[in-house]
Structures are given as C-alpha cells and as structure tokens.
Write a structure and sequence with these properties.
- The complex is a heterotrimer of chains A (440), B (320) and C (321).
- Chain A is 46% helix and 13% strand.
- By secondary structure, chain A is α/β, with parallel strands linked by helices.
- The longest helix of chain A is centred in the C-terminal third of the chain and has 18 residues.
- Chain A starts with a helix and ends with a helix.
- Helix content of chain C is 69%, strand content 3%.
- The chains are: A alpha/beta (440), B mainly alpha (320), C mainly alpha (321).
C-alpha cells in the first residue's frame, strides 16, 4: 500500500516535473564523505576502481561544519543518496545499533579480507561496535589525529632564536609540553614579522558542530583527563572533572586568551588553515589530514612548514579523528559498494592511497620501515596514532557532544564560570544522558 | 509611476454587500459544490501537512521517541518533557535571548521603518526608484545573508569593522561583533534590522497612503500645525498598520532560525542561542524527538497566545 | 499621478520638505546597499583580494577584477603536482587557466547548477500551486456561505505561527514513511502548505474588493458560476494574484530551514548550498558572493518588474483583519 502510494507520487512527480528517472548507463555508486583535501585524493584513487570494474563513481562531499548533521539526517531518513559512507568515528555506535551500516563480518570472511591487516587502534576506533568486539561495520579508511603545524622559517630566524633563548633559556623549537607551547605562542603573539603583525596560534574554537571539543580535548588528554573510571564504566565524577582535567582546560583557555588572532572565536579546520596559510599565525592545531596539502602549499609549504605531535604535559595523548568506510544498508547497490571495499582493502591500493595524501591504516603501509621517511609528518603521525583517544562513540554521542560544546565554549570563549564549574556541569550533563539511556 | 487607486480603497470596508437573490438561469455546478471544490484542496493540504503533523507532535511530546532509534521501545512519559523544559533555567535563558532579540529588532525596525515611510510619502521626485532600492535586502535569503555577514563582521578583514573603525577612529580589530558576549546579541539585531526594516516601511507606507487627503485638508483649513497634524492625524491613523507590522515581525523573529544559526551558531557560548536554535539542536542533532516535540508545542502555544492577545489589542486600536 | 488626484495641492509637501526627505531616503538606501555592493564586489575579486586588509574597494584601482569566483562557483577543482599539470595539454578557457595558475585542475562541474534548478522548480512550482489553491479558496471564502468560515480562516492563518523547525519534526517522520524525503514533490507540497495560508488571506482581500455585481451580471447573461469566475473575477484579480505571487516566491526561493533538514542531494535548493561553498583554505568568499549574486537575480528581476503591485499586496489582506 505504502509502496503503491509512493509509486503514484513518483509518477505524479515525474509527470509534473518532467524529470525522467536516471537511465541505467552502466552501474554507478555514490560515495559520501566530507569535503576536504583527502576527498580529492580519493577521487583520484577511485579512477583505478572505475577502470578495473567499469563501475562509475559519484561523490557527495559535504563541508565539515554540516557533515554530521546532513549525513546523519540522511541515514536517519533512510536515504538512498549514499551507497558508501565514510562516516565519522563517533557515528559507529548509533549507525550499528540502528542498522544504518551493513555488518561486514560475513563479507570479510567470504572475500578473505583480513581485518588484522589494519592497525588495531584504527580497527577498534573506526570499525567495531560495541567497541573492541569482533563486530565490524566499517573498514578503516582514513587514519587521523589532531597535530600541529608551525612556521619553520620563522622559528629558524637567528634574531628570534637569540631573543627566545635569552628569555626562556632554551632554543626556539617545536614545544614538547603545553607549558612550552604557551611560551612559544606568547612569544609570537603581536610580533612584527616582515612588516606584518602575527599571532601565536590558531586553535579550534568553533561552537556549532564539534570544533572546540576537538581542540580542548587535545589539551585535556595531555593533562591526564579521562572519560570514566577505568574499572567502572560511566562513572565520570572525579575523572572528567579531576584536578588534571581542570588544569588542562585552564591551559586551553589561557592559550586562547593570550595567543589567538583577534576575533578567533568560532574557528575550526578551514579557519585554522586560512589563518596559517595567510601567514597570520606561527602555529596551528589541525587534523593530520590537511598536512599533505599544507606541505604542498606554495605560500607556506615546503621548507617553511614544520610539524609536531600534540605536546604532552602529564601524559601523551592526541585527539582521534579519522573514519571508516561503510556500506549503507538502504543502498540499492550494495554489491557494487562491497566490491569497492574489497578493492580498497588491497595492499597495493592502500599504498597508492597514502602516496596521494590519504592516511592509510594498512599495516603494510604503516609498518614499512621506510614509512617515517615518506613525508615530513609521517613519523609524527605514527606517534600520534600510538596515543590517540576518542570522544564517546555511544549512540547518544551527539547529545554528549552538544553538552561538551556548550560547556567548553561558555567557559573558554564566553568567560562564564570557572574550569571546575564547566567540567562539573559537564559531568552532570553526561550523567543525565547516560541515565536516559539506562547506562550508569 | 502608474496612477494608484483611490487610497481610501485600502481601508477595510465592512463585510458584505448582501447578496441579491437572482433568478438562476445558468446551469452547471451548484454554489455549494463549487465552494467545497474550491476550498477542499487547500484544506486537505493544510490538514495533511499542518494539522496532522501538529497532532503528531503533540502525541510525540508525551513519549520518549527518538527519530534516530526507530526500533527502541516506545513509552509514555506523561508531562515529563514539559516539566523538564519549563523548569530548566537554561531554557529560560534561551527565551530571554529570544525576547531581547524580538524586542529590539521590532523597536528599531518600527522606528526606522515608519520614519522612512513617512519620508517616502513626501512624494519627492524619484521616490519610487529609491523605495525599490531600499526593498532589496528583504529579498535575500536569510541564510545566505547570515553567512555573508560573518565575513563583514570579521575583525581583521571585515567591512563592518573597517567602516566603524574608520568613522569611529578606533582600530578595526579592537572589537569583535560575533565573538564578544556583549556585542554579539547586537550583531544579530543589526543584521535583522538591515534586512527587514524595508518590510515594515512597506506596511507603514500603505498606512500613510490609506489616510484620505480630505482629513489633512480639513486640518489645513483649521490651521493645525504640521506637528499637530502628525500627532493627531498621521500617527493614530497609521497605528493599526504599525501594529500589524509589529505582529508580523514579532511572529517571524520569535521563530528566527536561519540567519542567526549561520551568523553565530548560537555563540559565543550560548549568548545568541535563540529558542529555535535550541529546538533544532534537540530535534535534529541530539534526536530527542519527544523532548523537542514538547518544546515545539510550548513555543507554538507561546506564539499563538501572544499573537492572540496582541490581535485583540489591535482590534481595539482599530475600533477607535 | 492622475488628473483626479491633482487637486490635493493643499496637502502637497513643500519643496523644502521634499528635498530633505529625498536626501534622507537616498542616504538610507545607499547605506543599506553597501553590504549588497560589497557582495557584488567580492564576487569579482580573486580570493586573495577578497580577504586583504585594508579592504580593497575600487575595481581596476585597488584590485584587478577576476572571474575566479564565478569559475569556482561552477566547478570543482583538485590540487595536482606541478609535473602533472605541465604534462597536460594547454588549458581550455579562462576558468581552466585560473585553476592551473593556482596549481589545480578543474575536475568537473559543481553542484550549483543542479541546486539552482531545484530552486527554480520548487519555488515556481510551489508558488503556482499556492496561487491556484489560494485563489480558489479565497474566492469561495469571499463569495459563499461556508460553515465555520471564521474558524477555518483563523486555522489557515495559525499554521504560519509554528516555528519551521517544529513543523519539520513530524514532516520529517512523515516524509520518511512516504518516501517524500529529498524529493522535489515533497518540497513543493511543503512550501505550498506554508504559502497557501498567506495566499488565501491576501487574495480574499483582493476578491472582496471586486464587486459581486460583475459576476452576477455575467451569470444573468448565461455564464455559469465557474465561467463567471474564470472570465470575470480572475482578470479583475490579476494585481492581487501578482502581488501574492511575489510574496510566495520570495519565501519559497529563500527558504532554508526546511531545505536543510529535509533534503540532502536530489532535491536540495540553493540556500543550504551557497553558505557551504568552501575553497582550499577557508570559505571561498568570491564563490559564495558569486552564488549569492546569481541567486538574487531572478527574484530581483521579478520584483522590479512587478514592484507597483507589491505595496498593494502587502496591505490588502493585512487590513482586512
């Protein structure tokens, strides 16, 4: 009945709009991802797939600020737009529980795809739900973490070196700790370089999606923040708002207050790139995914750019990004989509993926002894992937994230309350969400 | 310009010349059938796409339903969502932000809009041309406008800061319209006022044109001063129109979502998070469908109630 | 101004008052147009010029106009190595040359054109439907005894008081079940339902103005009610219909909230698309500005051509209640 109604509507619609249904000129599948540098690399890589199988590829890339909203909306409305989805790591819980993604275990077994070929941290983070079990809903597609870029040319200037050494008694070098980071950023803030006023850092402060959370957790992890009691899941009191966590959040706010460009109150990936590429800032926190593009940048790339892993303080920790590739269960072209995944899992394809600027998670790529030499940020990437931590991947992650965005932005940008109050409130918010889900 | 019709024709005439009963010589559908044929499709569409969803929203507001977990067990939570929302101090802060926005946009738009209409009604040469130019901002998409103003408000490179800095003699980078807790509520008011003052102007202009000339002529004969004429004729006779403009803008801005969401995303912190932004986050990001349905109903009742009270007042003003 | 109105010299403002008024109005118009002019200027800047400080204002003096924004609006590009670009045959057309000079190649068209076409179909389709339904209903409400007339009219009006996000929740669920998510038909029906309330109210005002005697005379001459409606009432109501259509079109053309929540690809209109045009570093402001300019064109043309109806349109329905 429903089908017939839809059909009638469809006929009415095409009659009304003169829109003929797409004629089937060979098979084509649509891959959905965020609009960013690696997506361009994937377009390039996928040409080989089309050449090999004759299946044409279409792409739907959505800019990050809208990516989660739009794609989760698409999945929740059982949309058929995407056959393949490179969805964010936090979506895996909800997408697995609501069967948006096809479970891939049988397929892996049938096609002889060994999930063990991929780095275990990435498999846990991008593919499994419940986390760490052997239920696979994605193949690790793109490893990613928060890292840092800096202006190597500015750091290398003799006069600046001398001045910095006089002030802090050490070389002006990529910071190893958050304390050093603050000092270096402060050192550059407001400084005149080549007749232009420059600033210390560009760090994520975006309010609308996930920006400030991804930025501030980089400070929090390094200071020893934990999401929950390791022995008692979902017990957050004393972990989320521990003294270490408070110190971490205060450090992030101090860095924001002292050393960002004026008006940098709602910046994330693109704004960070913008500030760095236009020569406004000495350092930038951003995803490793952008580093190949930055390295190639005519204005700030090459010798002018350097990279470093997120500084430690009490401990090492980097904020995890990255995505797995999944087959959407509402897709009408599942066979072709699976063929793509099979092709993508191949070691040779993975090697080319890395060479084009995509962060492969394949062991044959990452464990190659020569890997750290393949790019100036490769060694830092390996190091970061060794200590990554991810935000909640629960089905309610969006609610948890919303609360985090709000509490952090209120404290860091809008100057409301103290770090302790912000984190205390966050524990309350999160507890409430988990309670509604029956988890506590 | 084309000659406009009798301005008095704009004022409402009392309903209904009585229908003359005529001999029915024609054939065809009966009037009753035509009435239903003509009203039916509209009512059907509104029932399907407005009333039915409203009832559904009411139903959902009493459940724990989440649109992203269609298979989860559904249960009745009674008035829990309503209680949670109405006792949540955060929600009241959002309502305050909304009220601040609605109040100031209406105040500014009414004053400027009426002033402009009054000036345009001086019927100087080329007033039609200038009026058309003034109308352009309201034809833009609010979302596109909100997005573009983030560019104009950028402290370093934005035109707004540059111009204010230039005329105010301060450094453009010394203030941030969007990042500052005290300035950001005004940033959204400025954009909305820029965009919608023309609309208020149009309504006020209609009001001014509706005042029959003979009233002024009579005042002229009585040698009433211009100020007196303005206070005792222009303003009172225009009042129903001004109040209508306030009603329309009030309803629209109470629902404001697109422009502000793209301009500030509710930030900094939650300073400019208007009610509709909170609603969108609850409904389409957190997917708390039941909870957000309750919030939607509360907002609807608030708009509906306020609009009703207002319309009653309006009718009293008109009756004078 | 017609001869009949020229006798009002006594209320005609003095020349002095007119001068001051014209100056003030022109001043406001100029100030309020600055952001629009800025959008236009930005659309013909290169991306470097668009974010320069202090802002570059005068074309050919401060900056060289460039079609880069329009190129970027209509194309997608990908960054390539210098060797690869050098290995390609000479660039075809200005856009390809600009892309090459930025170290990129054009890989295909962008989604702007399909989104724009969706906007055209959905906005004009829903406007047409709103006017058709609205005229019929308005005529019926104006001429016939309809039970519960006032209640129905108020119900029709009240549908506009719901915040769009609130309506979007159940619509989203309903469309998901009916398969209307992300379809043009779904969006046309939705926009029509929003606009039809306005259309009924405005058009009822206009039709009330048309004397019944006209139709009644026609019916005595042997017209049926429907013929009288078509041949007598409709031509008289043209002004009202046009004014109403402008308002319906402005709404449907610019609507964002429903579009962003209920469409993702196939039926997405331009307003959700324009703000998310990003370049390689940050928002591609020239391309965003170019998209905005082109998006403004149809509505502007429509409005300027039909501007004299606008004032009447905004007032009629309004004054009647």
């Amino acid at each position: 009945m429903k089908k017939r109604f839809t059909l009638a509507m469809g006929i009415a619609a095409s009659a009304l709009l003169g829109a003929a249904p797409a004629s089937a000129q060979g098979k084509s599948i649509t891959l959905c991802w965020a609009a960013w540098d690696p997506a361009n690399a994937l377009v390039e890589l996928s040409k080989d797939f089309t050449a090999k199988t004759g299946i044409a590829m279409k792409f739907e890339f959505v800019p990050w600020p809208n990516f989660a909203d739009r794609m989760l909306n698409e999945l929740n409305s059982k949309g058929k737009l995407c056959d393949l989805m490179i969805g964010d790591s936090q979506w895996i819980g909800g997408s697995a529980e609501n069967k948006h993604y096809v479970k891939l275990n049988d397929f892996f077994a049938k096609e002889g795809i060994k999930i063990g070929d991929f780095l275990p941290t990435t498999v846990d983070a991008y593919s499994t739900w419940p986390k760490g079990t052997q239920n696979y809903y994605a193949l690790p597609a793109m490893g990613d973490a928060m890292g840092w870029t800096y202006r190597k040319d500015w750091f290398g200037r003799a006069d600046l070196q001398a001045e910095f050494r006089k002030k802090h008694g050490r070389d002006l070098a990529p910071p190893k700790t958050w304390t050093e980071l603050q000092e270096v950023a402060q050192f550059f803030q407001g400084r005149d370089i080549d007749g232009k006023k420059v600033f210390g850092v560009a760090i994520p402060t975006e309010r609308g999606s996930e920006g400030i959370t991804m930025g501030a957790t980089s400070a929090l992890y390094a200071h020893g923040f934990r999401y929950e009691n390791p022995t008692r899941p979902y017990q957050m009191q004393g972990f989320v708002n521990s003294l270490d966590a408070i110190a971490g959040l205060e450090a992030y706010k101090a860095l924001f207050k002292c050393c960002t460009p004026p008006g940098y109150t709602n910046g994330y990936m693109q704004e960070g790139l913008d500030a760095f590429k236009s020569g406004q800032v000495a350092m930038q926190m951003n995803w490793f995914a952008f580093f190949p593009g930055l390295f190639k940048d005519p204005a700030v790339g090459g010798d002018r750019i350097g990279f470093f892993v997120n500084p430690s303080q009490k401990t090492e920790g980097s904020t995890l990004g990255g995505q797995g590739i999944s087959v959407v269960s509402y897709s009408a072209n599942q066979a072709e989509a699976l063929a793509y995944i099979k092709w993508f899992a191949d070691a040779e394809v993975q090697k080319k993926w890395w060479s084009l600027g995509g962060y492969s998670c394949h062991k044959s790529v990452l464990n190659d002894p020569n890997f750290p030499n393949t790019a100036p940020f490769a060694a830092d990437f390996l190091k970061a992937m060794g200590n990554v931590k991810d935000f909640w991947q629960e089905p309610s992650y969006a609610q948890l994230l919303q609360a985090t965005q709000r509490r952090l932005h209120d404290y860091v940008v809008a100057d409301k309350g103290t770090a302790k109050e912000a984190l205390d409130s966050l524990v309350q918010d999160w507890t409430k969400v988990f309670k509604e889900d029956g988890k506590n | 310009m084309t000659s406009h019709t009798d301005p008095a024709g704009l004022v409402s005439l009392p309903e209904g010349h009585q229908r003359a009963s005529l001999p029915r010589v024609q054939t065809g559908l009966s009037d009753r059938a035509i009435a239903w044929l003509f009203i039916g499709p509209t009512m059907a569409l509104l029932l399907a796409i407005n009333l039915f969803p409203l009832l559904w929203t009411i139903f959902l507001s009493f459940t724990n339903y989440r649109a992203n977990r269609p298979n989860a067990p559904l249960w009745n939570v009674g008035f829990d969502h309503y209680v949670a929302i109405l006792t949540d101090p955060d929600i009241w802060l959002r309502m305050q932000a909304t009220a601040h926005f609605v109040f100031w946009t209406i105040a500014l738009q009414t004053v400027i809009g009426f002033g402009l209409a009054y000036l345009v009604d001086r019927k100087f040469r080329g007033h039609g041309f200038w009026t058309t130019l003034i109308l352009v901002p309201m034809m833009l998409s609010p979302a596109v406008v909100g997005n573009f103003w983030t560019f104009l408000y950028q402290p370093q490179i934005g035109l707004f800061n540059y111009v204010v800095g230039f005329f105010g003699g301060i450094a453009p980078g010394s203030f941030q319209m969007l990042g500052d807790v005290t300035l950001s509520p005004w940033a959204i008011i400025i954009v909305d006022t820029w965009m919608w003052t023309p609309y208020v102007m149009l309504i006020c202009l209609a009001g001014l044109r509706s005042i029959p000339d003979y009233i002024y002529e009579a005042a002229e004969v009585d040698r009433a001063s211009n100020i007196r004429q303005f206070v005792s004729i222009t303003l009172p006779m225009c009042m129903p129109f001004i109040m209508l403009a306030i009603l329309f803008r009030g309803i629209e801005n109470f629902k404001m979502f697109d422009m502000v969401n793209l301009l500030t995303a509710g930030g900094p912190g939650s300073t400019t998070e208007l009610a509709s932004i909170t609603l969108k986050r609850a409904a389409f990001e957190a997917w708390r469908t039941g909870y957000s349905s309750a919030f939607a109903i509360i907002l609807f009742v608030a708009v509906f109630g306020l609009a009703n009270i207002y319309v009653k007042t309006l009718n009293k003003v008109k009756a004078r | 101004m017609s001869a009949a109105n020229s006798a009002h010299s006594v209320v005609e403002p003095s020349g002095y008052a007119k001068l001051i008024a014209s100056c003030l109005v022109a001043l406001y118009a100029v100030i309020s147009l600055v952001p629009l002019v800025w959008i236009g200027l930005t659309s013909v800047k290169s991306s470097t010029d668009s974010i320069s400080y202090p802002p570059k204002v005068i074309p050919y003096v401060d900056f060289q106009p460039s079609i880069e924004g329009y190129c970027n609006l209509f194309s997608t590009r990908s960054r390539q190595t210098t060797e690869y670009i050098q290995s390609l045959p000479a660039p075809q057309g200005a856009c390809e040359s600009i892309a090459r000079s930025r170290g990129m190649v054009v890989v295909g068209p962008s989604n702007y054109v399909p989104r724009y076409i969706n906007s055209l179909i959905i906005a004009f389709g829903s406007t047409f439907l709103s006017i058709a339904l609205g005229t019929a209903a308005a005529y019926a409400f104006s001429r016939f005894k309809v039970p519960l007339k006032d209640d129905l009219l108020f119900f029709i009006l009240s549908t506009r008081m719901m915040p769009p996000i609130a309506v979007a929740i159940p619509i989203y669920l309903m469309y998901r079940e009916l398969g209307l998510s992300d379809t043009r038909l779904g969006m046309i029906l939705l926009y029509t339902s929003v606009n039809v309330s306005l259309a009924v109210w405005l058009l009822k005002g206009f039709i009330d103005e048309i004397p019944r005697e006209y139709e009644e005379a026609a019916m005595i001459d042997g017209y049926t009610r429907l013929q009288a409606f078509r041949k007598v009432v409709l031509p008289q109501a043209v002004t009202g219909i046009v004014a109403t259509a402008i308002f319906c079109l402005i709404f449907a053309w610019n609507e964002y909230a429903f579009a962003v929540l209920l469409t993702s690809g196939a039926a997405q209109t331009a307003p959700p698309f324009i703000p998310i045009i990003i370049g390689e570093g940050g928002q591609d402001w020239p391309a965003v500005a170019a998209g905005t300019v082109l998006f403004l064109v149809p509505i502007l043309v429509f409005t300027v051509l039909l501007r004299q109806h606008l004032l009447r349109g905004i007032t009629f329905g309004a004054v009647r209640k």
